[in-house]
Design brief:
heterodimer; A: 114 residues; mainly beta; seven-stranded mixed β-sheet; four-stranded antiparallel β-sheet; 11 strands; B: 114 residues; six-stranded mixed β-sheet; 12 strands; globular
Chain lengths: 114, 114
């Protein structure tokens, strides 16, 4: 059974539109993350959340907004999409504070902005 | 800030060759060091980790030793197989409470030719 679910797997959007990438984890972890992977930056950290609170934000643009409606959910809203936003977005989770803190990654959402 | 440097961007080997992928880090204290592997179409998955100086991590024939003196965590495998073809990421994280940030290297693409 998949432990981290990301939806959709593929997403095509037009420039200027808005999309939401979904992530749910069923590992019981207390921290969740978003990463972006593109040809320019292989694996780029974006956000970290713990107990639905933002812990770290390394994304310069406010067009990227994480949303956490439940402890095991961390969606990513992207507004005013640009072609440069085309990338694969990975959600990850980990258990922080107990020593077992390696990150587990989802399968990714591949976003193409035309 | 913390950083991870992987020297090789791409490595091409024949089956049964010896593999070394160099990883050097810059961080305060004793970060935990990881190696992740990413197969096409999937998210990165943990290969192994090490948390203390001189600790060796290993999995599936791959191994690396935490060396605080040289700030290195080089990945090695004695005899690679075609199925090892993937992208390998070196990463670090701190155990401090409140630090949820993971830092990944740029990745090394390994291609093993049968």
């Amino acid at each position: 059974d998949p432990k981290i679910i990301q939806k959709p797997k593929y997403l095509v959007a037009v420039t200027g539109s808005e999309k939401i990438l979904i992530c749910e984890q069923y590992l019981g972890h207390n921290a969740m993350y978003w990463y972006r992977q593109s040809a320019k930056k292989p694996l780029e950290f974006m956000f970290s959340y713990s107990y639905q609170k933002l812990m770290d934000n390394q994304t310069a643009s406010s067009r990227f907004q994480p949303q956490s409606s439940k402890k095991n959910h961390l969606d990513l809203q992207i507004t005013a999409l640009k072609p440069d936003d085309s990338a694969t977005y990975f959600c990850a989770s980990s258990q922080v504070g107990t020593g077992d803190y390696e990150q587990y990654f989802g399968p990714g959402t591949r976003l193409t902005v035309l | 800030g913390d950083s991870v440097t992987q020297t090789e961007g791409q490595v091409a080997l024949s089956e049964e060759d010896f593999l070394t992928i160099h990883c050097n880090y810059s961080a305060s204290g004793y970060p935990t060091l990881f190696w992740y592997v990413q197969y096409p179409g999937e998210g990165p998955q943990l290969l192994f980790r090490a948390s203390r100086d001189k600790e060796k991590g290993s999995s599936r024939g791959f191994e690396a030793t935490y060396d605080k003196g040289t700030t290195s965590f080089h990945l090695r495998k004695a005899s690679v197989q075609e199925s090892d073809s993937a992208v390998y990421y070196c990463a670090l994280s701190h155990r401090n409470t409140g630090n949820y940030k993971y830092v990944f290297g740029a990745g090394t693409r390994l291609k093993v030719i049968a």
